[in-house]
Amino acid sequence: MPERVNAAQDRLSPGSAPMLVVTPGSEPGSAADDAARDPAYDAVLLLGFGGPEGQDDVIPFLRNVTRGRGIPEERLETVATHYRAFGGVSPVNGQNRALRAALEAELADRGEPLPVYWGNRNWTPLLADTVRAASAAGHTRLLAITTSAYSSYSSCRQYREDIAGALMTTGLDATMRIDAVRPYFDEPGFTVPFVEGVRAVLARLAVRGLPVARTHVLFTTHSIPTADAARSGPPGVDFGAGGAYLAQHRAVAAAVMAALADSASRGDRGTAADGESVPAWSLAFQSRSGPPAMPWLEPDVNDALRALAADGTQAVVIVPIGFISDHMEVLWDLDTEAAATATTLGLTMERVATPGIHPAFVAALATLALERLHGPVLPGCPSGCCEKGAGRPAH
Fold this sequence. Notes:
Layout: E1 5-7, E2 20-22, E3 43-48, H1 58-66, H2 73-84, H3 92-109, E4 116-120, H4 127-136, E5 141-146, H5 153-170, E6 177-180, H6 188-207, E7 215-222, H7 226-230, H8 243-266, E8 280-286, H9 301-310, E9 315-319, H10 328-331, H11 333-345, E10 348-351, H12 359-374
Helix pairs in contact: 1-2, 3-12, 4-5, 6-8, 6-12, 9-11
Function: Involved in coproporphyrin-dependent heme b biosynthesis. Catalyzes the insertion of ferrous iron into coproporphyrin III to form Fe-coproporphyrin III.
Pfam family, one: Ferrochelatase
Region (Disordered): 1-35
């Protein structure tokens, strides 16, 4: 496929830092692909990870997530305590219901009244059941929007494998086509909620007398095996250590901070005014779930907090740019564990909200759909794009 290397300042907010990141086109999930014809999409598919919705769902859900990885039951019970602390209910399903409704309404408002279906990888509604329902309603061409914005095996390629698997399982691979939109980390509507959130937190910290020079903006995302990170993005493109996954996250963080600096330079209300335009920032990782012997991206968010406290930081603004909504990894790993670490260290910590159903984010997803509905049919991801790293167990 021809490489699409985009200087994402053209896509992100004005004043954002330049970044060169290759974004692959969409890889069809159907064996019936024909890139030369008009796809004529008749429905949209919101594709998520899934989560339990009651105490009885927790262990079966975790077994689905870890199937084939040899995770012992006692480890599942440990992780289950995170969900049980919230009544066994992950927030992600409710959030995806809200996002599905918001996206359907946005498309209708923009003259494309397409139904939006929702299916999950690991819990009901499972993707195969959703595909059957869409077929029973007469739909044959679906455009899938995944609930992850970045390039990697687990956040991109695996969802495309899920689509292909669902079509095969249902026997619809010859009659239904499902294409996925491109990674959308560089859509301005994805970053707007983070910019607004950081700006609001900095304003509150300023009122409390906490100086910008002693404040740090800590961006976080889900850690993945370093071997997966190295192979993220199209092969043959040098993204540096960490592959496209790390490059894309760093670029989003830089764009958020550049937008804040631009606001500060204009003297916008709510920005810092104590001689420093914006705080320093860094990227940390969270929610590691692999075996100790397997290297994953670091530093862990708790280790990063310890290092910041040792360096004299007084306040930390946590910005979970790796998530589009408040998954359990946000509620537990950040709002519970990281918050406890910050308290122990004497740090003031505030966490910025995820995009959720922020109007700018919903509009961005609608734009992605319209881009495919009315634009050219894009080529698929090249062979080897976002492959699993060597030695990583299958999910």
